[in-house]
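Table 4 source record.
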Amino acid sequence: LFCPRGCAILYVAEPDRVLPTVTSHGYGKGFESEFSQQGTRDETALLVLPAAAAFYRGLGQEAITRHCRSTLSQGVDLLTSAWGTETPMGPPGPDPAWHSGFMALVRMPIEFDPAAIEAESTDSGGLIRHGKIFQALHNKLLDDFSVEVAALFFLNDRLHVRVSAHIYTSVTDFEVLAMAVTELCASKWSP
């Protein structure tokens, strides 16, 4: 809803089947009481909820979806062209089967020794978050280029970045990522 982290609307069809993750003073007093306050949590983010909902309604879901799909498609095309790589599912098309929601994987042009990849901390899906390669690449992109990379994946021994688009994202954001990674490759950077 374009508002601060931790602020959302929760719709539950069967409230008796849902419990909060934090037990608070409203425990056992019903759905609304159990979710109304979570201990020492700062509730000020909730004050923006009416404005965020109005903003969302003002734009409309169709316009948001159109913007996000278009931006993602253009961004992925820009990255694959700049890097000479591809997405795991092939190029984007009119039916975007190559992405999930407003996110996509793009193979990065950075190569690694397979032994280094095996040593990384990964989950069963190949996601790396805490290993040496992720930390080094994440920090380099953030410190030198002000680019935030939240998820990297190894698929078939190749590094992929998860990119996403939202209403606040523009193709310029993808251009900055393309340029940053291209510069890293040209400098022969390695973690």
